């Protein structure tokens, strides 16, 4: 009977396992193997030998180090900033009654808008051309500053646009999650705190924050993972030649190694992808450890 | 602390567009709660008892009327300045804090001169925990405790700041039957030990009657009757109160007064001298029936349930509002369970007559009026 049940269970699992195997496990293993094959040639499907040369090459490649630097700056700035701002907006949304639905819809709009379309809009807002300074530069000059080319100009300006864009794009989802988390905190906790004369700041730090902490950790972890995987947003603003613009990301580097103008090196791409995997895995583990230490009810 | 509710009214604006009138949750509530008593606010769900509690705690503001704690008018005071302890139906214990942190939480909010040092807070928290007998569980979290223990923590948290008034919202509804019995005794003990004026809300009449000094029966926002539990039970002012109090419930018959006699169906059950003829409801408590071969009330016998101490007779009568008439008699009286019918005479003081139109009580004999006046005087004496 147990035997039969077991066979049945495997049968039910089969479709999912087939798809996962073909599209997840097999490519992962393949990438892993590629990353150790030195001098792999796409056309002849041959290689010279095996070893750690690919990793060495990637780690010494200045373009890769630039991509790592860009990605880390992006992650470190945008994840805390977007989560913090989203929390503030959610608290605001939670405390108003009139027009709440309208504001919720407005804040959610970026989520349903196409990345490339939004990137284009950002480019038009920030780009300085021979014909126009762009809206942002007009504002800067109106307030007495000097115009900056945010798209082809200095590194900090480009990074600013990148971070601004990322924060703006990831915010709606965080607001959605946090408003529902805040709304699900039982009103009785607040009533109990009111009867006891708890000051608002203390209510926030002692009751609201611990109650929604699991959701905040969820957002931070997914935020880290999402920011490490940034690519399409960068392309939308700075175009496809990211190495030249100095704005490449790790995923962008992987893509360039495969299909870009300097591409055709699946081994280097695989090595870079596995380095990214190791970074994301480490950070997620650290996050999970931190969260399990602080919330245990 | 004496609590006075002075013409207290709470209206909520209607959210239903088809029904534009306001919802009146509490309608002109006047009551003086004597110092140090345990009061039960009793009524079916939606009768306004929880709203009344919220008005007293200050979580809701009354539409009109005043609330006094002793000589202080607290109507416009926010909840934190009223000095009330509130125990919520779901306890509202902070799940991420230990029992100690939960009980200390109200103390940590004290400001200025009232501010306590850490050891003082610990001491006060431990005292409160000892009072409710959970001092051995100070480092547990609420999730690691049973419902009854959580209930005690909630009471300790409400008591720790030494409130002038303790308010309990359905304190026993989340407990199982055995724990409920135990906890209600506990609430009574804590109330008597601390001497804090306590108001608790319940829809369970047994709970209210068993431990309170006084009960307030409410329906649809209107106070129906206030008094000592036994007096309200023995002398209900209207049909609603009579039906709401008592398990098993009162048996209600349609009847009439005709020619100075009270009739149930065609049976003249009691004299009603000097009463004008009219349609009435006759309520008979289960313990108001006396099996009597020559009794005036004749019912078809459905069954006999023996419960040891007493016997329950299940009968039916076409005049009865429910399908069955339930009479509870001493088990010493033997009933022939194969008889097709059973005859009763009625105890006059367990039989209440109500006007068929208004549901208001009709006193059919002088004896009854005198008894009811006595009860009223006793209740007033207690209030004063």
Structure description:
The complex is a heterodimer of chains A (297) and B (384). Helix content of chain A is 76%, strand content 1%. Chain A has 297 residues and is an all-alpha fold. Chain A starts with a helix and ends with a helix. Chain A has 13 helices and 2 strands; from the N terminus they run αββαααααααααααα. The model of chain A has no long low-confidence stretch (mean pLDDT 84). In chain A, helix 7 crosses helix 9. The radius of gyration of chain A is 24 Å and the shape is globular. Chain A has a domain at 62-116 and 154-294: MetI-like fold. Chain A has a two-stranded antiparallel sheet with strand order 1-2. Chain B has 384 residues and is α+β, with helices and mostly antiparallel strands. Chain B has 2 domains: 3-240, Rossmann fold, CATH 3.40.50.300; 247-365, no CATH class. Chain B is built from 9 helices and 21 strands. Chain B has helices at 49-57, 99-108, 118-131, 147-159, 177-194, 205-211, 229-234, 239-244, 366-383, and strands at residues 3-12, 23-33, 38-42, 64-69, 72-73, 84-87, 165-169, 197-202, 214-219, 222-227, 251-258, 261-264, 267-271, 278-284, 289-291, 297-306, 310-316, 325-330, 341-346, 351-355, 361-362. In chain B, the strands form 4 sheets. Chain B has a 6-stranded mixed sheet with strand order 6-7-8-3-9-10, sandwiched between helices. In chain B, strands 13-12-11-14-20-21 form a 6-stranded antiparallel sheet. In chain B, strand 7 (165-169), helix 5 and strand 8 (197-202) form a beta-alpha-beta unit. The two termini of chain B are 14 Å apart.
With helices defined by DSSP (H or I, 4 residues minimum), what is the helix count of chain B? 9
CATH superfamily of the largest domain in chain B: P-loop containing nucleotide triphosphate hydrolases
Look at the structure and give the mean pLDDT of chain B.
82
Helical amount of chain A: over 70%
Indicate the CATH architecture of the largest domain in chain B.
3-Layer(aba) Sandwich
Q: What's the total count of β strands of chain A?
A: 2
| Widest β-sheet, arrangement of strands of chain B | 6-7-8-3-9-10
Alpha-beta classification of chain A: mainly alpha
Gross morphology of chain B is: elongated
CATH level 1 name of the largest domain in chain B: Alpha Beta
Strand order of the largest sheet of chain A: 1-2
Silhouette of chain A: globular
User: What is the terminal separation of chain B in angstroms?
Assistant: 14 Å
């Amino acid at each position: 009977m147990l035997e039969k049940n077991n066979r049945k269970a495997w049968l039910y699992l089969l479709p999912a396992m087939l798809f996962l195997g073909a599209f997840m496990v097999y490519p992962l293993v393949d990438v892993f193997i590629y990353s150790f094959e030195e001098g792999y040639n796409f056309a002849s499907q041959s290689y010279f030998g095996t070893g750690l040369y690919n990793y060495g090459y990637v780690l010494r490649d200045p373009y890769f180090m630039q991509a790592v630097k860009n990605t880390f700056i992006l992650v470190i700035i945008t994840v805390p900033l977007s989560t913090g701002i989203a929390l503030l907006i959610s608290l605001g949304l939670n405390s108003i009654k009139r027009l709440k639905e309208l504001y919720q819809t407005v804040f959610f709009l970026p989520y349903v808008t196409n990345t490339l379309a939004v990137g284009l809009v950002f480019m038009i807002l920030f780009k300085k051309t021979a014909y126009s300074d762009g809206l942002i530069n007009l504002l800067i000059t109106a307030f007495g500053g000097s115009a900056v080319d945010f798209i082809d100009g200095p590194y900090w300006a480009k990074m600013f646009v990148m971070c601004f864009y990322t924060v703006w794009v990831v915010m709606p989802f965080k607001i959605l999650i946090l408003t529902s988390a805040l709304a699900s905190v039982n009103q009785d906790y607040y009533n109990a705190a009111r009867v006891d004369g708890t000051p608002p700041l203390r209510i926030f730090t002692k009751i609201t924050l611990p109650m929604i902490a699991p959701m905040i950790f969820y957002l931070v972890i997914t935020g880290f993972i999402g920011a490490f995987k940034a690519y399409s947003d960068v392309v939308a603003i700075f175009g496809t030649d990211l190495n030249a613009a100095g704005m490449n990301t790790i995923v962008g580097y992987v893509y360039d190694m495969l299909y870009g103008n300097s591409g055709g090196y699946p081994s280097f791409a695989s090595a870079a992808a596995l380095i990214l995997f190791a970074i994301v895995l480490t950070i997620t583990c650290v996050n999970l450890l931190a969260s399990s230490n602080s919330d245990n009810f | 602390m004496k609590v006075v509710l002075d013409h207290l009214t709470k209206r909520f604006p209607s959210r239903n567009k088809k029904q534009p009138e306001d919802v009146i949750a509490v309608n002109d509530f006047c009551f003086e709660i004597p110092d140090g008593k345990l009061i039960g606010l009793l009524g079916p769900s939606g009768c306004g008892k929880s709203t009344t509690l919220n008005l007293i705690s200050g979580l809701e503001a009354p539409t009109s009327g005043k609330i006094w704690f002793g000589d202080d008018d607290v109507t416009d005071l926010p909840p934190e300045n009223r000095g009330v302890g509130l125990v919520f139906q779901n306890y509202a214990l902070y799940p991420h804090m230990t029992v100690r942190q939960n009980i200390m939480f109200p103390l940590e909010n004290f400001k200025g001169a009232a501010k306590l040092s850490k050891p003082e807070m610990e001491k006060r928290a431990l005292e409160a925990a000892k009072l409710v007998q959970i001092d051995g569980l100070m480092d547990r979290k609420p999730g690691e405790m049973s419902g009854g223990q959580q209930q005690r923590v909630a009471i300790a948290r409400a008591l720790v700041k030494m409130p002038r008034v303790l308010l309990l919202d359905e304190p026993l509804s989340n407990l199982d039957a055995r724990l409920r019995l135990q906890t209600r005794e506990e609430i009574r003990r804590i109330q008597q030990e601390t001497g804090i004026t306590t108001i608790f809300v319940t829809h369970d009449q047994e709970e209210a009657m068993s431990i309170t000094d006084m009960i307030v029966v409410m329906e649809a926002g209107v106070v129906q009757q206030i008094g000592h539990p036994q007096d309200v039970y023995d002398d209900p002012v209207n049909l609603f109160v009579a039906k709401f109090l008592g398990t098993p419930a009162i048996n209600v018959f349609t009847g009439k007064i005709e020619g100075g006699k009270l009739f149930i169906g065609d049976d003249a059950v009691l004299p009603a001298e000097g009463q004008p003829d009219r349609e009435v409801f006759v309520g008979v408590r289960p313990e108001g029936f006396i099996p009597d071969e020559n009794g005036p009330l004749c019912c078809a016998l459905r069954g006999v349930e023996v419960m040891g101490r007493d016997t329950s007779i299940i009968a039916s009568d076409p005049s009865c509002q429910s399908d069955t008439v339930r009479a509870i008699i001493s088990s010493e009286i033997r009933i022939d369970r194969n008889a097709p019918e059973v005859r009763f005479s009625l105890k006059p003081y367990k039989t209440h007559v109500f006007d068929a139109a208004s549901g208001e009580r009709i006193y059919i004999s002088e004896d009854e009026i005198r008894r009811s006046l006595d009860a009223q005087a006793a209740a007033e004496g207690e209030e004063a």
